[in-house]
Design brief:
Blueprint lengths: L7 H4 L6 H9 L2 H15 L14 H21 L4 H11 L4 H16 L2 H12 L5 E4 L15 E5 L4 E5 L7 E2 L10 E10 L2 E11 L12 E5 L15 E5 L2 E4 L8 E3 L5 E3 L9 H31 L18 H36 L6 H29 L11 H8 L9 H17 L17 H6 L13 H23 L5 H7 L1 H25 L7 H19 L1 H6 L5 H18 L3 H6 L5 H4 L10 H9 L13 H17 L1
Parallel strand pairs: 1-5, 2-5
Antiparallel strand pairs: 2-3, 3-9, 4-8, 5-6, 7-8, 10-11
Helix pairs in contact: 2-3, 3-5, 4-5, 6-7, 6-8, 8-9, 8-10, 9-10, 9-16, 9-17, 10-11, 10-12, 10-16, 12-14, 12-16, 14-16, 16-17, 17-19
The chain binds ligand LQNNLAPS and flavin-adenine dinucleotide.
Length: 664
């Protein structure tokens, strides 16, 4: 870092060991060192610079992305980077591209749903990028309802092939990333038909383009679906449309871990549950939760640094004006978002552990925690992406007018991030899945089935329905057991109330449809409880570094008590707390904001983001905002000439016209 540090006075106030916090944020010293090295490698390579990409037209933008992806691959090979290092490098290139789908979905789908032979054949090709894959599930007519997909895969026993076909316009594959212009192959989801019988939706490896000249295979129609929300942003991605006219593929290109089709066209089920066909989605949802904290931390880092630089009002005797970060209203909007970034980081870590555990159990034919893994990944994906998208927009507002400039980095971040609320499962549809899981768990309580894992608290439902919150002073809200009990009681009471209402319906499906909005609220309460409880678990770990645990405690209680404030209706209406206790929680929240305030800049420094990755004039590490904002404005193409193009055609004649009218 060269030059003056305009935020030095802020950094001098820090009460904890920032380097130790960087390691907590990264997850381990190894993860910190590796990500730090990759971030610097990308930031120092001119081929990866991002300036001006929002001003590029679609074709230039897309070609620029192809160039960066090719350069990244070249560097990965030259430097012999490991898979982990390569993943970090791609992350810091910071531009959505076909490689996200290749590595993030195509490869995992083959790993999760392919047989050993299929993996041996296809994975080496994919690892060397001799083929490029995408994940073609969604169609024009159906996305959420996977069982409603219309593409067919009909087995032809004469030739030992599947015939992949798009029977209707609505069966056109629509949305898959990387499909429009790049992918040579895709995992295509289609209805399996053998001997005239349907066997549900399955995945098939289908070649789409020639490996010689990139032309579509005859019978395949393929292209890009068009511009998406925001300038630049997700338009670096070629989301595609694809139709099949009786395309033939060998039988061994159906992913057959769940179900095998024999030479005669007979379907043989393996011992793994049918839901494993959805396994790639579980994997990706888990990675989306981890990514939510990264995106949220970016927005919060920008808004926090800028809030310390920006001054408005409050000058006395010609002194300095007030830093906007010192306004209590700014703190009450900003610090819960800072706390959420840390909360999502830790729940993401835990979810990764859960996913690894499930994968190991599946390999040992233990499928018992698959429903919980599905509910957790679906629910936390929904909770964290909704909160992050909302938070990015809130950070834009926290930066006032300058937040609306592309130079703030926030409009692009929002545009890139917001589809996370839709892709990989619409967030409401996913919460309804959680609700089904919760209602099933509650309905089984009577039969003596003991809930485990994240629903274990429902096993104590009788206690939780009766318990009274033990808070008499604001300090009592700093007891983990008190906070946990309040969240558990709220969630348990909401679940039980919903289950009782459901039981009034003769047909449970009718009841579920009628009460779905209420059910979604119970799912949110349950997921918030998971986040709070995993944050509290984190505090119990031995966390080295002066003052680090203290800061994390403050953030944990800010996260929990802010939720309590925001969802006060739930807590009061279910009788978990009294209005007086709610008021004490607010007092505690204000006190926590004051304690976080001197550490705010250091807490965002701990994210260890380079200026390159942040891509924000407002969020610069050195806080030198105004001269750089001024400099940035002059880079706009409109400022290439003093008198704009179009002056002679449109402005000048208008002015002359007015002059003539004035003379009349
Ligand atoms: C400033 C610039 C910044 C730049 C930054 C750049 C950085 C890069 C940024 C971003 C790049 C990221 C790249 C991301 C790429 C996006 C990828 C997106 C890909 C996709 O979207 S793929 C398509 C995903 N589609 C979906 O998710 C569809 C959603 N629908 C479903 O999941 C299901 O169909 C359903 C669950 C809704 C179906 O419900 P239903 O029909 O009722 O269920 P059934 O199929 O009958 O099953 C019932 C039974 O199964 C259980 N179950 C359902 N799903 C699963 C599962 N996944 N796992 C396990 N079990 C499952 C369900 O609970 C039922 O169980 P039960 O019978 O009740 O016990
Ligand atoms: C940027 C982007 C990238 C994508 N990439 C891919 C990809 O690589 N591969 C791929 O296969 N797909 C991809 N998709 C598609 C994505 O997975 C789907 O759009 C997503 O699953 C939502 O499905 P849908 O579009 O059918 O929404 P719909 O289901 O049509 O949702 C419309 C509305 O209906 C509501 N709704 C739907 N069902 C219910 C219900 N049962 N109860 C209550 N409300 C309901 C939803 O909440 C929503 O408000 C991508 C999408 C986007 C935006």
């Amino acid at each position: 870092m060269k030059g003056v540090d305009h935020l030095a006075h802020e950094r001098n106030k820090t009460e904890f060991d920032v380097d130790a916090m960087k390691i907590v944020w990264a997850g381990s010293r190894h993860a910190f060192e590796l990500s730090d090295r990759m971030a610097r490698l990308v930031a120092s390579d001119p081929a990866f610079q991002k300036d001006g990409r929002i001003r590029l037209g679609r074709k230039e933008l897309f070609k620029n992305t192809l160039r960066k992806a090719a350069h990244a691959w070249k560097r990965i090979l030259e430097l012999h980077l490991t898979e982990e290092e390569a993943g970090w490098l791609r992350n810091f290139v910071d531009e959505p591209s076909f490689t996200d789908l290749h590595w993030g979905m195509f490869v995992p789908a083959i790993k999760g749903q392919g047989t050993d032979e299929q993996q041996q054949k296809w994975l080496p090709l994919a690892y060397k990028m001799q083929i490029i894959g995408s994940y073609a599930q969604t169609e024009l007519g159906h996305g959420s309802n996977v069982q409603g997909l219309e593409t067919t895969a009909t087995f032809d026993p004469e030739t030992d092939e599947f015939v992949i076909h798009s029977p209707t316009l609505t069966s056109s594959k629509w949305w898959p990333g990387g499909l429009g212009k790049v992918s040579t192959h895709a995992i295509v989801y289609a209805r399996l038909i053998t001997n005239g019988q349907e066997h549900g939706v399955h995945g098939f490896i289908v070649q789409l383009r020639s490996l010689d000249d990139h032309m579509p295979i005859p019978g395949i129609t393929i292209g890009d679906i068009g511009m998406k929300f925001g300038n630049g942003a997700y338009n670096t991605m070629d989301n595609g449309v694809l139709t099949f006219d009786h395309i033939r593929i060998p039988r061994n290109q159906m992913l057959m871990r769940v179900l095998q089709v024999t030479r005669e066209g007979k379907c043989v089920k393996s011992n793994v549950p049918r839901q494993l066909i959805y396994g790639t989605m579980v994997f990706v949802r888990q990675t989306i939760v981890a990514d939510a904290s990264t995106a949220l931390a970016r927005a919060v880092c920008i808004a926090t640094r800028y809030s310390a630089v920006r001054r408005q009002f409050g000058s006395q005797d010609g002194g300095m004006e007030t830093q906007v970060i010192d306004y209590k209203t700014q703190q009450s909007r900003l610090f819960p978002l800072l706390a959420s970034a840390y909360a999502f980081r830790f729940v993401g870590e835990w979810l990764k552990w859960l996913y690894t555990d499930v994968t190991q159990r599946l390999q040992a034919n233990d499928f018992s925690i698959l429903p919980e893994a599905h509910a957790c990944t679906a629910g936390l994906k929904s909770l964290t992406t909704t909160a992050t998208a909302d938070a990015i927009e809130e950070c834009r507002k926290l930066c006032g007018g300058h937040g609306y400039l592309c130079a703030s980095g926030l409009p692009e971040l929002f545009a890139v991030y917001v589809p996370a609320c839709t892709y990989e499962g619409d967030n409401v549809v996913l919460l309804l899945q959680v609700a089904r899981f919760l209602m099933k768990t509650v309905s089984q309580l009577g039969s003596g089935k003991k809930p485990v894992g994240t629903t274990a608290y429902l096993g104590r439902v009788q206690d939780l329905l009766q318990c009274c919150c033990d808070v008499q002073t604001a300090e009592d809200w700093l007891k983990p057991s008190v906070v946990l009990e309040a969240f558990e009681a709220r969630s348990a009471r909401m679940c039980v109330a919903r289950a009782q209402n459901l039981s009034k319906f003769e047909n449970p499906e009718d009841g579920f449809a009628e009460l779905s909005a209420d059910l979604v609220e119970a799912s949110v309460a349950h997921c918030q409880l998971i986040v709070v409880s995993k944050f509290i678990d984190k505090l119990q770990q031995d966390i080295p570094g002066k003052g680090v645990n203290r800061q994390l405690q403050n953030l944990c209680y800010i996260y929990a008590l802010n939720l309590l404030h925001k969802y006060l209706g739930d807590f009061l209406s279910t009788g978990c707390i009294t209005p007086k206790q709610a008021s004490l929680a607010n007092d505690q929240l204000r006190s926590l904001y004051s304690q976080i305030r001197p550490n705010a800049i250091a807490l965002v420094d701990a994210f260890n983001y380079t200026d390159h990755y942040l891509g924000s004039v407002l969020g610069r590490y050195d806080g030198n905002v105004y001269p750089k904002l001024y400099e940035e404005a002059w880079k706009d193409p409109l400022n290439d000439s003093v008198v704009p193009d179009g002056y002679h055609e449109y402005i000048h004649p208008m002015l002359k016209q007015q002059l003539r009218n004035a003379r009349l």
